[in-house]
Amino acid sequence: MATVLLTAALVVVVAFLAAAAAGVLARLDGATYPAALVRAGAAFAAALSLAAVFGSVLAQFLS
């Protein structure tokens, strides 16, 4: 149980870091603050979606 919680926390932290990097890169590219926030949100959602897909595929092979 603890392994699952730690893995979930790690996935959220990595998704947050990806979102922060996307937001900073968008801002450095000249995007406005709202546009950079939208790009960061999209990166966060994409990272979590990718982790969910990877987890579901992995669960099919392990069960």
Which residue ranges are poorly predicted, with pLDDT under 50 across at least 5 consecutive positions? none
Structural class by sheet pairing and helices? mainly alpha
The percentage helix is over 70%
Q: What is the mean pLDDT? A: 96
Q: What does the largest sheet look like?
A: none
Share of β-strand residues: under 5%
If you compute it from the alpha carbons, what radius of gyration comes out, rounded to the nearest whole angstrom?
14 Å
**Please, how many helices?**
2
Shape: elongated
Number of strands: 0
- The helix-strand sequence is HH
Distance between the termini: 17 Å
Detailed description of the structure:
This protein is elongated. The model has no long low-confidence stretch (mean pLDDT 96). It is built from 2 helices and no strands. The two termini are 17 Å apart. It is mainly alpha-helical. Helix 1 runs antiparallel to helix 2 (33-62).
